[in-house]
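Good morning C.,

I know you're traveling, so I'll keep this short. The sequence:
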Amino acid sequence: MEINKKRPAFIKSKERVAHIQKKLDSARKSLAQAKKADAAHEQDIRELEDELAEVDRKRKEYEDMVAGESQSQGKDVHLEDAQVREILVT
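The tokens, ready to paste straight into the viewer:
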């Protein structure tokens, strides 16, 4: 008789544990997905920073080349950023 009185509380506790376990599993999956997305974003950032460094290096090379040519011709040439980007793209 004592056991029959506590059975509903036991069942309710068991259901609550199952519910909390499902929430925990869902939260762990979400965390794994967020970590994966973060790693992908970090990789994208590193690649873009490398690209930017390469573009800056090429711009400096080009500016140095143009400055050397213009000095040899007695001219002083300075390009705006937009002009340099246009040259690098083509």
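Safe travels,
E.
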